[in-house]
Amino acid sequence: MLRLRIQLTNWPRRALVLTDTPRPHCPKCRGEGGANRDYGDPATGEYAGTEWEPCPCWNENRRWVLLPLPHRPWRTSPGGYSDEPPF
After folding, report:
1. How far apart are CA 48 and CA 61, in angstroms?
2. Are the beta carbons of 85 and 72 closer than 8 angstroms?
3. What is the rounded CA–CA span in Å between residue 10 and residue 47?
4. 53 lies in a domain?
5. Residue 32: phi, psi to the nearest 5?
6. How many independent structural domains does the chain possess?
7. Any domain includes 59
8. SS3 of 69, please?
9. In a domain, 76, yes or no
């Protein structure tokens, strides 16, 4: 079952997207969508970084563009208004 929400994204282009969300009562991630895992350098055993392990209860790459938004250069004219139409 999909749990959908609307989000604003800025990459690769500004748009409103419909995206999946993690299961709120998932026993593995408790609704957070995954967990951070610290790992060490095999040679020294010292801390080397953190990796994000996504939970299988959702797919963070599952999204659909609903509405591409225009690029609006706010300071193109001397008065600070754009000459670009909104759509």
Report:
1. 27
2. no
3. 33
4. yes
5. -90, -15
6. 1
7. yes
8. coil
9. no
Q: Please provide the size of the chain in residues.
A: 87
> What's the domain range around 35?
4-68
Q: Whole-angstrom Cα distance, residue 63 to residue 12?
A: 13
CB-CB contact of 4 with 19 (8 Å) = yes
The pTM (predicted TM-score) of the whole model is: 0.55
Given this model, what pLDDT does residue 84 score?
A: 65
Half-sphere exposure of 59 (CA within 13 A, CB side): 7
What is d(CA 55, CA 35) in angstroms, rounded to the nearest whole number? 8
Residue with token string 């963070």:
60
Average pLDDT, stretch 27-43? 91
Question: Alpha helices of 1-87 — where are they, by DSSP H?
Answer: none
In a domain? residue 83: no
Cα–Cα distance for residue pair 51/49, rounded to 1 Å: 7
The predicted model gives 38-42 an average pLDDT of 89
3-state SS, one letter per residue, for 18-76: EEECCCCCCCCCCCCCEEEEEEECCCCCCEEEEEEEECCCCCCCCEEEEEECCCCCCCC
